[in-house]
TrEMBL record:
Naturally occurring in which organism (per UniProt): Ruegeria pomeroyi (strain ATCC 700808 / DSM 15171 / DSS-3)
DUF4055 domain span: 244-381
Pfam families: DUF4055
Lineage of origin: Bacteria, Pseudomonadati, Pseudomonadota, Alphaproteobacteria, Rhodobacterales
Entry protein name: DUF4055 domain-containing protein
Highest taxon of the lineage: Bacteria
Length: 460
């Protein structure tokens, strides 16, 4: 039987699906029904439907992810490309997406699932002369199998199987796989794969190669490295890492389950229910309730209202608050204001640094992965070398807009001769009052060239 998936794939796939569903939000979870919200014992089908629909999902994971990506991309990266591959700035991917779009996709995948593959490829059929290379992307679910081996004293990726989208094969039960190997040179193969099932397990796999082997070259010479990177928050190795968002997602789902119980309890107990005791029959049974209704009860009958008393719902509300605080400690600061209960200022500061460490390491790895492929793209083309490529992401994750009072103090210090012009400009840059990507020399040149710039007060 052909092996098409790594031994760890199925276990990881369950975690990936869970994270995707939680990030997708409330509608996805409600449609999943008992998968994430088990049916309480004794409920009818109609009651369970009402139970699910009445629950409210707190979209912490999605908002946290959006906030993290936004913190990285709020400042444009520093990017320099040789002219030959300059077109990759606006069309970096196989689908024609810009490098900015590719960057956001990579950050989202690495921060949430902890796994994202990028493959450098070169246009072949129908490509215009002078076309630049492009990058094909593969999410965690599409990375099916891999192998790393010691080659020439270095650990190398020697085998990679990827699921490749082919819209012509949709609804046919056939998948298209891209298989990359070092044989010993870099070789590309495509297969159509059909799995035969008997119950929940795959019994056999039929695999048919599509087309001939492809051996890409650089200046006519074969390549002895697979031009792909598998990015995790911690390294560029093919090893599977625990998805960074898994813990947050698990707590988010616990919050969802308690929320369902809480709102179901409110539904059952929030409205007082009338009761009547005595010789009641169909003729004298009350039919309406409210200020416009008039009840005539038999002699000796009693009426009253059932109202909820007790601490059960309050305990559920406390549990929701505790889970919200727990999600905050797992990285959801942008959806939870304030520090945790009984948490000192120093503890809060350490927690904040811990939360930023995942973001920082993920940025390092995404930057390293994209830099590696862009430099290879430069080497793949002529003229161009790896040294011509510069790609740097900013690490200023928190907005540092300067306070007007500080700006006034800096201006007074500069005009009084207490600080230099460079120090004044450097502080404007740190305070994000000038382009963070602009060098101080360039800012001075712009000042000198601008006839509309007024002279500094107190400066001749």
């Amino acid at each position: 039987m052909t092996k098409i998936k790594h031994r760890t794939y199925q276990e990881q796939r369950q975690a990936y699906d869970k994270i995707r569903d939680v990030i997708a939000g409330e509608d996805r979870l409600k449609n999943a029904g008992a998968r994430y919200l088990p049916e309480p014992e004794g409920m009818t089908t109609a009651q369970y439907t009402r139970y699910v629909q009445g629950a409210s999902f707190y979209a912490v994971a999605e908002r946290t992810l959006r906030g993290m990506v936004g913190a990285v991309t709020r400042n444009a990266p520093v990017l320099e490309l040789p002219e030959r591959i300059a077109g990759m700035r606006d069309a970096a991917t196989f689908e024609g997406h810009s490098l900015d779009v590719l960057l956001e996709s990579a950050l989202r995948e690495v921060l949430s699932l902890g796994r994202f593959a990028m493959l450098l490829d070169y246009p072949t059929d129908g490509a215009a002369p002078g076309s630049a290379p492009f990058i094909s992307t593969f999410d965690a679910e599409s990375i099916l199998d891999w192998k790393e081996e010691l080659v020439g004293g270095r650990q190398k990726l020697t085998y990679l199987r990827l699921h490749e989208t082919n819209h012509d094969l949709e609804d046919t039960g056939v998948e298209q796989h891209l298989v990359l190997t070092l044989d010993p040179a870099y070789t590309v193969k495509r297969y159509h794969v059909k799995s035969q099932r008997n119950g929940p397990d795959i019994q056999s796999v039929e695999e048919v190669q599509v087309g001939e082997d492809i051996t890409p070259t650089i200046d006519g010479s074969p390549m002895f490295d697979i031009p792909a990177v598998i990015v995790s928050p911690y390294n560029l190795k093919a090893d599977v890492e625990k998805p960074p968002f898994l813990d947050l997602v698990n707590v988010n789902l616990a919050h969802w389950r308690v929320s369902a119980d809480y709102y179901w309890s409110l539904y059952l107990t929030s409205q007082p229910t009338p009761w009547v005791a005595g010789s009641i029959n169909e003729k004298n049974k009350p039919r309406q309730i409210g200020s416009g209704a008039f009840w005539v009860l038999p002699q000796g009958a009693q009426a009253g209202m059932l109202e909820f008393t007790g601490a059960g719902i309050a305990a559920q509300k406390t549990a929701l608050d505790d889970l919200t605080a727990q999600m905050a400690t797992l990285g959801a600061r942008m959806v939870y204001d304030g520090k945790g209960r009984n948490e000192t200022t120093d503890t809060a500061r350490l927690r904040h640094r811990s939360e930023l460490s995942l973001l920082h390491s993920s940025v390092n790895m995404v930057e390293a992965g994209l830099t590696k492929l862009l430099r290879l793209a430069a080497e793949w083309t002529r003229p161009g070398t790896a040294d011509d490529v510069v790609f740097k992401l900013h690490r200023d994750f928190v907005t540092a807009q300067m306070d007007p009072a500080i700006l006034t103090a800096l201006l007074k210090a500069y005009t009084a001769g207490a600080i230099s012009h460079d120090t004044f400009l450097m502080n404007l840059k740190k305070g994000e009052l000038m382009d963070v990507n602009r060098a101080l020399d360039d800012e001075r040149d712009l000042i000198d060239e601008d006839d509309n710039v007024l002279p500094m007060p107190g400066v001749a």
